[in-house]
Design brief:
The complex is a heterodimer of chains A (401) and B (145). Chain A is built from 15 helices and 10 strands. By secondary structure, chain A is of the alpha+beta class. With 145 residues, chain B is an alpha/beta fold. Chain B has one domain: Beta Polymerase, domain 2 (2-Layer Sandwich), CATH 3.30.460. Classes of the chains: A alpha+beta (401), B alpha/beta (145).
């Protein structure tokens, strides 16, 4: 609960995030520089997608759920496809499974690079930002060649995928992966060897294993706190049980551990993609879908490991051609709630990166930052000034090291 | 065979309040329970068996307000759905949030979209509907003839 002390101030970050440019509102309850409590408000951009889904046919729902998130746009169709295939009791052909995994892992790669760039930007490390986003570009180019789009690929359908990946596309994907491995080496070394990044992220925003279990957190947020959960391994789907890879974990639970997990996961994604490309070459071209005529009455639960963690879809059908109920749980829905643990007791400058460390996706769950005086209501800081504080802290550390 | 044993074990070990157990797919299970037994059974899955709480899905049917509490047994790759049916006239159930902080938001969301009351919720403020729609309007409720 929030205890309003005489010297406590409320600092709202939102309702439009200054850097991530998405709608959310965090209220930081501060005493001096220290965050004492945090509250989150959502619903500013509630789009009613679950309700909309009930008015779409099963095939149209793919395009709807693909638009839940602009970054991990394929993870929702992925989980939805798994869910519908569970109800229809069908299994897509191997070629479709490989293509699904390739799309899923390419998405993880570009999403992790996007986060790394943003994290660098938050800390005032604009070189990391520029590098990470530059290396992300070839992945998006590859997506464009494979699917026709840099994002929102529309690759999935019940029983398979919409487009095949063949010949030149495979060769280009191999080359992109070879190049990316070198870039990832460079970025990993640059980030993990930098003493200032160590100072800004080690011991900051720490979540223990008990915390993440209590908040039911998933993905790199859980894995960085030593909880080795990954749906790709635990409840395998697509081609994940046909290739060799490992779940990356770290024990410290701080921002540094989360960065480390994401950087190392990039290598695993590259490994998975390369093996899936090998698999594609062994499977007959064009065998990418299974015709599914009817969806029977029943319930289905489908999940997929998105870059931010497990995406979960629950669908109830009644034998018609639309869902009766479609429940969607994006990973940020459970990850964002961990802020309460990660930010309390920290300084305002560290709160910015702690809030960013779970890679929150507001489109999946759900504004401008101003700091007001708790009593007088006078504006103290705006969004840019808050980010400026975070950068100054990095500068200060640079000068002391 | 292994899965059948899993269900038999569950039936033996689960505390009182289980109406029936069923298997919908290879690694998907549904356990119908009495609403009054939710805290003990969910507590058993979460504390004793160390299952992970995924989320809860609520929907309105002719039978009443139904909630599926989805738990994940990550070691075996199973999803266990705890299913409760609440009466049309008084949809009320105990909150899980005291035991499991991960249930905080979803219970508030279910209250706002369907009008289900979660008793003893520690933070009963609005999550998504504040200023978005009028008091007492539940968009996910259905009209049955």
């Amino acid at each position: 609960m929030i205890h309003k002390m005489a010297n406590q101030r409320i600092i709202p970050v939102g309702p439009y995030h200054p850097l991530q440019e998405e709608p959310e509102l965090f209220k930081l309850y501060c005493e001096g520089e220290t965050v004492k409590d945090i509250k989150w408000e959502t619903g500013y951009n509630h789009r009613g997608i679950e309700k909309l889904s009930e008015s779409k046919t099963f095939e149209q729902v793919f395009f709807l759920v693909e638009r839940i998130c602009g970054i991990c746009s394929t993870s929702h169709p992925f989980a939805y496809a798994n869910c519908m295939e569970e109800i229809a009791q069908v299994e897509p052909p191997n070629r479709a499974k490989y293509i699904r995994s390739i799309v899923g892992e390419l998405e993880r790669l570009h999403s992790h690079y996007l986060w790394l760039g943003l994290a660098g930007h938050f800390l005032g490390y604009n070189t990391v930002w520029m590098w990470a986003w530059k290396y992300r570009e070839p992945i998006l180019d590859l997506f464009e060649i494979i699917s026709g789009n840099r994002n929102s690929y529309a690759m999935f359908k019940i029983g398979g995928v919409r487009r095949d990946v063949t010949g030149d596309q495979i060769a280009l994907a191999r080359k992109t992966m070879r190049d990316l491995k070198k870039k990832n080496d460079l970025l990993t070394k640059a980030v993990t060897d930098d003493p200032v990044i160590h100072a800004r992220t080690k011991g900051v925003g720490t979540l223990t294993k008990a915390d993440v279990m209590d908040y039911a957190a998933v993905g790199p947020t859980a894995r960085a706190s030593g909880w080795a959960i990954d749906v790709r391994r635990d409840d395998p789907y697509a081609a994940y049980d046909m290739v060799d890879w490992k779940v990356i974990t770290a024990d410290d639970g701080d921002v540094f551990a989360k960065t480390q997990v994401r950087l190392l996961e990039n290598y695993e994604s590259i490994k998975i993609i390369e093996q899936c490309l090998d698999g594609l070459e062994k499977e007959p071209e064009g065998d990418i879908e299974l015709k599914v005529k009817e969806i029977p009455e029943g319930i289905g639960t489908g999940r997929a490991e998105a870059p931010r963690g497990e995406v979960f879809h629950f669908v109830k059908t009644d034998g018609s051609n639309s869902p009766v109920r479609h429940k969607i749980r994006a990973p940020s829905y459970v990850n964002i709630a961990t802020f309460k643990k990660a930010c309390v007791g920290q300084t305002i400058s560290d709160a910015t990166i702690s809030l960013a460390a779970v890679d929150p996706c507001y489109c999946c769950t759900e504004r401008m930052a101003f700091a007001y005086d708790w009593h007088s209501g006078d504006k103290i800081y705006d969004g840019n000034q808050l980010v400026e504080r975070s950068r100054k802290e990095t500068e200060r550390l640079k000068n002391t090291l | 065979m292994k899965k059948q044993t899993f269900l038999e074990n569950m039936r033996e070990q689960l505390p009182q309040g289980v109406i029936q157990t069923g298997q919908i797919r290879d690694n998907r299970f549904v356990i119908d329970i009495e609403p009054a037994a939710l805290l003990t059974i969910a507590g058993y899955l979460y504390h004793t068996l160390k299952y992970r709480f995924i989320i809860a899905s609520a929907f309105h049917t002719k039978k009443g307000f139904e909630i599926m509490y989805h738990f994940s047994d990550d070691a075996a790759g199973n999803i266990i759905n705890l299913h409760v049916i609440l009466p049309q006239d008084q949809p009320e159930i105990e909150s899980l949030t005291h035991m499991l902080s991960g249930a905080n938001w979803i219970e508030r969301e279910m209250r706002e979209i369907l009008g289900i009351t979660f008793r003893n919720h520690p933070e009963p403020e609005k999550l998504i509907s504040d200023g978005n729609w009028a008091e007492g309007v539940y968009p996910y409720r259905k009209n049955f003839k």
